[in-house]
Design brief:
This protein is of the alpha+beta class. It contains 20 helices and eight strands. Helix 2 packs antiparallel against helix 7, helix 7 packs across helix 11 and helix 16 runs parallel beside helix 19.
């Protein structure tokens, strides 16, 4: 069989076999497998690459099958025109089968984990790929959606092999190697005016269509981009949405970036690239500096005459780019009051508030005189690692504070904590 060349009768039988089959790799593979004389897997991949959405009638699939000899497959090597198709040094998966092999999955497993038909929304929790966790906040609740180990490992491969090859915009400081809340806040220190703006529901507002657009822009064919999107997004089941505000639940019930997946931060930065470009241009036009840390935006510089117009423009840019500004979290800070971003006070040099340092120093002093377990009143897991993380956090902006806190921590008997962690 050359290039899937099918005689009319074989094409008709294949079209009939696929009439009621799920329009997925696994579904078509199973349907085509009932017809002898074809390679079911290769044919299913080829059909999905050419027709990502199911046809309205069997005749459409029949005509496609008859036309396959003239519809040449995408070459395995794209070296002749890769500069016009592929962007950045990403692996070139021309078919879904290429992607499955790279991830060490079968076609059926790829279909299962990508869940493009969203059939797992109605299945029991043990069959779903994510574990939900609600975190209470002052302004409502945040829903974490934690991928189970197998999907999490798949997402980590996608992150390392694809997303890490694509740089975020220079203004992005969240989830970027070598950057931190400190690098986000430092450019705004000693400014006449600092404006902090917060984007609402940052991850849930990034839909599956916007994620698909990122993968397509990197050069992946529609079918491959669709599978990658399915592996990195989720539509939250109805039973998980109970008790959440209507607007928040409406976003979550459609495919979106899950807060908790290792791929979500990098994808969010790439989706927000145009927003960062426009916000940077707005800042430059007003002699301001702009940076972004996830959903936290910061503008700073010399005093400007019309702050209201600037804020209105930021809101319009956000709406144009599919985001929304939180109406109650905008801060306009001038030097006569505390200027703070991501927990750092930036009136002079970025530093964590004295209160945070004093509380941690007192906790370590008490732990040295009593025990680490007695001071762990909130029952924090891996308390020792948690405390050393806080020391590193505060010490990032002050070597003096870091040395003081480390000396106190050395006096604490962490014995029981170490045994528990072992």
């Amino acid at each position: 069989m050359r290039d899937f060349e099918l005689d009319p009768e074989l094409a008709r039988r294949l079209a009939v076999a696929a009439t009621d089959a799920p329009w997925t790799l696994g579904g078509l593979e199973e349907a085509f497998g009932t017809v002898h004389g074809v390679s079911a897997t290769s044919l299913a991949v080829r059909v999905l690459d050419l027709m990502p959405a199911p046809p309205f009638e069997p005749q459409t699939l029949y005509r496609l099958l008859r036309e396959l000899p003239r519809l040449r497959p995408v070459p395995v090597s794209m070296d002749t025109n890769d500069s016009s198709v592929w962007r950045f040094d990403v692996p070139r998966y021309n078919t879904s089968a290429d992607l499955a092999r790279s991830l060490d999955l079968t076609i059926s497993e790829l279909d299962w984990f990508s869940d493009r038909g969203e059939w797992l929304r109605t299945k029991p929790l043990q069959l779903r790929h994510y574990r939900p966790m609600q975190i209470s906040k002052k302004a409502g609740a945040r829903l974490l959606e934690i991928p189970k180990p197998r999907l999490r490992e798949i997402q980590r491969k996608i992150l390392r092999r694809i997303l890490d090859q694509v740089p975020a915009h220079d203004a992005a400081h969240g989830f970027v190697r070598g950057r931190s809340p400190l690098t986000f806040a430092a450019p705004h220190a000693q400014s006449e005016i600092v404006i902090g703006v917060d984007l609402m529901q940052f991850f849930p507002s990034i839909t599956g269509n916007r994620v698909h657009a990122v993968f397509a822009a990197l050069g992946y064919p529609p079918a491959v981009a669709g599978v990658l999107t399915g592996l990195c997004t989720v539509a939250t089941p109805a039973d998980t949405l109970r008790g959440l505000p209507y607007a928040q639940a409406s976003q979550l019930r459609t495919a979106h970036l899950p807060q908790g997946a290792p791929t979500s931060p990098a994808l969010a930065n790439l989706v927000a690239r145009t927003f960062d470009i426009r916000s940077s241009a707005l800042a430059q036009g007003n002699w301001l500096t702009y940076t972004r840390y996830a959903d936290d935006l910061a503008f700073s510089g010399i005093e400007i005459a019309d702050v209201g117009t600037l804020l209105w423009t930021i809101k319009q840019i956000a709406q144009d780019e599919g985001f929304a500004v939180h109406p109650r979290k905008t801060k306009v800070m001038r030097p006569h009051r505390r200027q703070h971003l991501t927990g750092l006070v930036i009136n002079d040099q970025p530093s964590y508030p004295r209160d945070d340092y004093d509380r941690l120093r007192a906790l370590l002093h008490n732990a040295a005189n009593t025990s680490a377990q007695e001071q762990n009143r909130a029952g924090v897991e891996h308390f020792r690692a948690h405390i050393y993380g806080r020391i590193a956090h505060i010490g990032e902006t002050s070597t003096t504070r870091r040395r003081t806190l480390l000396r106190l921590a050395d006096r604490v008997d962490w014995g029981a904590e170490i045994l528990e962690s072992d």
